[in-house]
Write a structure and sequence with these properties.
With about 250 residues, the protein is of the alpha/beta class. It has two domains: about 120 residues, Rossmann fold; about 100 residues, LytTr DNA-binding domain (OB fold (Dihydrolipoamide Acetyltransferase, E2P), Beta Barrel). Pfam families: LytTR (PF04397), Response_reg (PF00072).
């Protein structure tokens, strides 16, 4: 994949170019110091991926994107974490904080490869009504999601989330020692999560199967599952049957 690096700092561009040498399938097609130079490079090079700083002389990275009719896949590179939510609102693939870590860069490039190699969907037949809204994009356990609860924000790999649990009109997320609340339903999350990894244990909870520490028989032929780091989850009767069928040889 061809990449364009846009950053007013020559040192930052040099460092990113050096990190990208570890990925043989990535070619740095060009560099730009500000938005106007980036527009010229985008027209000439038509890169697959744009590594974009936010604070630059003249226009910001967001203003550059707003001025483009079409844009390549965008990975933001910045020293500031307060623009993360806005970055995902403009459909950025990822948001890398400086100094950029190689493992985070690898994860961002994996997302770019997945987008670039995804098959082009066939045209829908003309007959029939259009759906009210597009189907949610499925996520893998290696995807990183942005979570905001009040004034606190996190970037969390789905693989690190062990439990989603209804809490009032919100869903509570369990990862590390944190328990933020998000305005999403379990039904919405089920559509987006990989059902080979995330299992709907009951009406209230979705568990990450890779965090299961132990399983024991429970009342009325149900199961009780203990997750590493807690808590224990009681699987409903119907879902206990499905759990056995799904995971038995």
């Amino acid at each position: 994949m061809n990449a364009l690096l846009v950053d007013d700092s020559r040192l930052a561009r040099t460092e990113l170019r050096h990190l990208l040498r570890a990925f043989p399938d990535v070619t740095v097609a060009g560099e730009a110091r500000h938005a106007e130079e980036a527009r010229t490079q985008l027209r000439a090079l038509q890169p697959d991926v744009l590594f974009l700083d936010i604070h630059m002389p003249g226009e910001t990275g967001f203003e550059l994107l707003a001025s483009l009719e079409t844009a390549p896949h965008v990975i933001f590179t910045t020293a500031y974490d307060e623009y993360a939510l806005r970055a995902f609102e403009v459909n950025a693939l990822d948001y890398l904080l400086k100094p950029i870590q190689e493992n985070r860069l690898a994860a961002a490039l994996a997302k770019a490869r997945a987008k670039l190699t995804a098959p082009v969907p066939a045209l829908a037949p003309a007959a029939g009504p259009e759906p009210d809204e597009p189907a949610p994009t499925p996520l893998t356990e290696q995807d990183q999601v942005f979570v905001k609860d009040g004034e606190r924000c996190w970037f969390v790999r789905l693989a690190d989330i062990r439990l989603f649990e209804i809490n009032g009109s919100y869903t509570q997320i369990y990862f590390e020692q944190h328990r933020p609340l998000i305005p999403r339903t379990l039904q919405h999350l089920e559509q987006r999560l990989d059902n080979r990894v995330f299992f709907r244990a009951n009406r209230q909870q979705i568990i990450n199967l890779k965090w299961v520490e132990s399983i024991e028989p429970w009342f009325s032929n149900t199961l009780k599952i203990k997750l590493r780091g807690g808590p224990e989850v009681e699987v409903s009767r119907q879902q206990s049957v499905r759990f056995r069928e799904m995971l038995s040889l």
